[in-house]
Amino acid sequence: MSVAASATELAALSRRTRYQLVKMSNASGAPHLGSAMSCVDILVAAYWRALKIDPANPKDPSRDRFILSKGHAGSALYAVLAEKGFFPKEWLDTFAQTDSILTEHPHPHGIPGVEWATGSLGHGLPAGVGIALAARINRLDYKVMVCVSDGECNEGSIWEAALFAPAQKLSNLTVVVDYNKWQATGRSNEVMSLASLVGKWDAFGWRALEVDGHDMEALIEALTMAPDADRRPTAVIAHTVKAKGVSFMEDDNNWHYRIPTTEEVAAAAKELGIL
Amino acid sequence: MRNAFAKEITALAQKDPSVVLLSGDIGNRLFDDFKAKCPDRFYNCGVAEANMMSMAAGLASCGLRPVVYTITPFLTYRCMEQIRDDVCYHNQKVVIVGTGSGLSYASLGTTHHSCEEMGMLRLLPGLSVLAPADPFEVRMTLAAALRHSGPAYIRIGKKGEPNIHASTPAWEIGQTIELRKGTDVALLCAGTLLQECLDTATVLAEVGISTSVLSMPTVKPLNESMLSDVFASHRLVATVEEHSVLGGLGGSVAEWFCDQPSLRARLMRFGTPDAFLHRNGEQEHAREILGLTPAGMSEKVRSRLASL
Ligand SMILES: Cc1ncc(C[n+]2csc(CCOP(=O)(O)OP(=O)(O)O)c2C)c(N)n1
Ligand SMILES: [Mg+2]
């Protein structure tokens, strides 16, 4: 799909991607399907509109960087990278299969386009802060975007990074919080005192804004805002629905672990408009 | 092993009102029974392991017996200083239970592997390092750790590991369990490769090699008198663990061994290499690749014995 694709076309791409994820989970038996479906629109808006990365030159020192800090949604990153042309789509058939390079949690060792090995929550943002700071030191003007999950915002390291980035005026940095209100074993606002998430990022010195994390136009607008005129890093709190796109999975946290059956794959295809 | 842990901790907490279970946003339905029976003694501490670990030390300092539970790398690598300063330096009776240890979660990728943590934790003064082999040994090590007067770390696997023992062995920290007595080679196993050791012994028996198999769930403190006996009564001693050959059981025994000039047996170590695994695969596949199978280990033992 071209860079100039409309928001409507990108929304359609998101639906196809979600179907791809359902198939990948079914084929591999890999969990975290709901987590992956939750952040698809964020990834699509980021890769098609916000970031400049040449899939043919994924190590270009001046490229923009995207880090999926919530690495358990690795299938979504792989699907988007394949669609973008970083590697052949056929690789997706090997996702989480024996001897595949595409491990459930993503890593950069031989997977073009993956910037950072994630899977242990709370690492991607601090690493992204380092990469954003390096742009200044190395006199390059790339942007850095990091997608974290709401449960991930339990980690102290997220808030250590959140304190550091504004102090250094890292306005080339955007964090997107996939705020789907669930973590692995409970509601994220009940397990920990997360609310108000936007208030917290704001209080830490970020330009904090809230968007509907499934509204493609709103996402594109929010994700292309950096750099901020006041030199603050940007925090986009994206309100999302876990397992977005398939009614019988949406907001049901069983899909953190559950694997769809072949019948469920077919039902999902119908709902996502795949014929 | 996960289910054995959940059942045993529930039973122990019902007997001891000071037991408090802390979990790091995992084990979705696993602790339902615990929560029902001890509703004020289960805390989901969220995805915030460092806080959970120091908090456990604080609870222990007030006479409670906290048991902290989550996925091994997040509970150990991430919390190393919390374990060192708050748990060990204050000598707090915290029981640290890492789940999915070694290559149990091989297919999840390197971030979820833990093949170095025993080596790291073993360096901490006062911390017992325990690696049970089957669901019964999980129950046994957990109960012993809660009887113990200092902190303990227990590395367990996932779910579905087969029973090797017929019941929970009577056991205290430091003890070894002999499963098979032989004369040529002794396999000392820490953790879930015990069945592979028994099968290795069977393969070796077919070529006339007599093998002892010992379950050694205590990596620290080492059972030195047992080691002396084993090294005196066999030609070859091999350590077996789903952990790096550096720093774990093999590393511990090698360190001990170099101070024992008079023992006659030679030492060899089976474990994971000093490298990260990047490719996908289940635990069985990883073991196969690394030669941690009866075929792989028996062949190496055979050729080592032949060279002596
Ligand atoms: C440091 C760390 N602790 C625990 C886990 C296990 N784990 C995987 S996903 C998850 C929480 C999922 O909730 P959230 O972060 O909100 O992501 P979502 O699936 O909702 O997108 C946990 C605890 C982990 N991967 N890393
Ligand atoms: Mg969430």
Please tell me about this protein's structure.
The complex is a heterodimer of chains A (275) and B (308). In chain A, 38% of the residues lie in helices and 12% in strands. Chain A has 275 residues and is an alpha/beta fold. Chain A has a single domain, classed as Rossmann fold (3-Layer(aba) Sandwich), CATH 3.40.50. Chain A has a five-stranded parallel beta sheet with strand order 1-2-3-7-6, with helices on both faces. In chain A, strands 4-5 form a two-stranded antiparallel sheet. In chain A, strand 4 and strand 5 form a beta hairpin. In chain A, helix 1 packs across helix 4 and helix 1 (7-28) runs antiparallel to helix 10. Chain A starts with 6 loop residues before the first helix and ends with a helix. Chain B has 308 residues and is an alpha/beta fold. Chain B is globular. Chain B folds into two domains: 2-155, Thiamin diphosphate (ThDP)-binding fold, Pyr/PP domains (Rossmann fold), CATH 3.40.50; 177-307, Rossmann fold, CATH 3.40.50. Chain B is built from twelve helices and twelve strands. Chain B has helices at 2-15, 32-37, 49-61, 72-76, 80-89, 117-121, 135-147, 194-206, 224-233, 249-257, 283-289, 294-307; strands spanning 19-23, 42-44, 65-71, 95-99, 128-130, 152-155, 177-180, 185-190, 211-215, 218-220, 236-244, 266-272. Chain B starts with a helix and ends with a helix. Helix content of chain B is 39%, strand content 20%. Chain A binds chain B through residues 30, 71, 74, 96-107, 109-110, 117-122, 151-152, 154-156, 183-186, 191-192, 256-257, and chain B through 23, 25-28, 44, 46-48, 50-51, 73-74, 78, 107-112, 278-282, 285. The structure holds thiamine diphosphate and magnesium ion. Magnesium ion binds at residues 149-151, 180, 182-183, 188 of chain A.
